[in-house]
Design brief:
CATH class: Mainly Beta
Helix content: under 10%
CATH topology: Rieske Iron-sulfur Protein
Largest sheet: 4 strands, antiparallel
CATH superfamily: Rieske [2Fe-2S] iron-sulphur domain
Shape: globular
Structural class: mainly beta
Mean pLDDT: 90
Number of strands: 10
Low-confidence stretches: 1-10
Bound molecules: FE2/S2 (inorganic) cluster
Length: 121
């Protein structure tokens, strides 16, 4: 399937995470990256998002949190983090870096270059 991988190699820093079906709905998978772990989430609507696996509060593992809608609740102190932006939901303040993800032919690809708008913690 060379065609489906073309864009991935062209972009340089895209990595294959695995099949969408390998992640249960409302679940997450951790990708080990040199800059720190990245949590890849699957929502109930089969959307996929990626955040640094480190809560902006005190570094809790967001990959072990509860996904609801487009948010994940940190397992440590229940801050809610927006999956699309990585920002904490008010009244809490902070941001976890978010990363581009896409699904092609049922396979998830993740960019290791974080989106702008949030410090890469
Ligand atoms: S470490 Fe995530 S809410 Fe405190």
């Amino acid at each position: 399937m060379q065609a489906s991988n073309k864009n991935v190699s062209a972009a340089g820093d895209w990595v294959e995470v695995g099949k969408l079906d390998d992640i249960p709905q409302l679940g997450a998978r951790v990708v080990r990256a040199s800059g720190g772990d990245i949590a890849v989430f699957r929502t109930a609507d089969d959307e996929v998002f990626a955040l640094r696996d480190k809560c902006p509060h005190k570094g809790g593992p967001l990959s072990q949190g509860i996904v609801h809608g487009k948010r994940v609740a940190c397992p440590l102190h229940d801050w809610k983090i927006q999956l699309d932006s990585g920002e904490a939901v008010a009244p809490d303040e902070g941001c976890a870096a978010s990363f581009p993800v896409r699904v092609e032919d049922g396979t998830i690809y993740l960019s290791l270059t974080p989106n702008e708008g949030c410090p890469n913690k």
